[in-house]
Amino acid sequence: GQQLNQSPQSMFIQEGEDVSMNCTSSSIFNTWLWYKQDPGEGPVLLIALYKAGELTSNGRLTAQFGITRKDSFLNISASIPSDVGIYFCAGDDSGGGADGLTFGKGTHLIIQP
Amino acid sequence: GAGVSQSPRYKVAKRGQDVALRCDPISGHVSLFWYQQALGQGPEFLTYFQNEAQLDKSGLPSDRFFAERPEGSVSTLKIQRTQQEDSAVYLCASSTDGTGGHSNQPQHFGDGTRLSIL
Fold this sequence. Notes:
Chain A is an all-beta fold. Chain A has no helices and 11 strands. By secondary structure, chain B is an all-beta fold. In chain B, strands 2, 4, 5, 6, 9, 10 and 11 form a 7-stranded mixed β-sheet that branches. A 4-stranded antiparallel β-sheet of chain B has the order 1-3-8-7, with no helix packed on it.
């Protein structure tokens, strides 16, 4: 089946630093999504990307849909304590039928005071 | 409520027991998805409904897993003769997309049911 390679697995940063994480895939996706999951909660949608090359911002978050449709990155600028959590990329290749999302294994963001 | 609601939040069962997990999607959402999330992993797709029709069940790990959505709203995921490897968080998601074609409506997740099999 399809797999998403998400990196890094974890990040230890200082408050105020910028963060960058990315996902790559062996196959094409029509949609890329980025979710954040806090302990004991479900994933919460941060950004959805629908077109190759698309660059979208949501506050301090910026994400891009790669031109090849096989990759995406998420940047967080000026990190704050509440950014702590696990970030997941997810790809959707629905194109004639409906499929579930394929998720990466997550990037665990830890912010040191 | 405004979001996807799942119950129970926690379920502990002995190996061999049957369990049933419930999902109330966002009102009006046509599509409903079930995922399984093992500890330290991303969610993995189990099955998909468009209204009451189960269009994809390719992710169900075995015939012990069964899902239904008889009236096209609430869904139940049932696991029969539970095994220890069934221990995981089971997430439900819904979206407005109902065309069955290119999906451009993101999925919104509930907080999951954490299932522990002893």
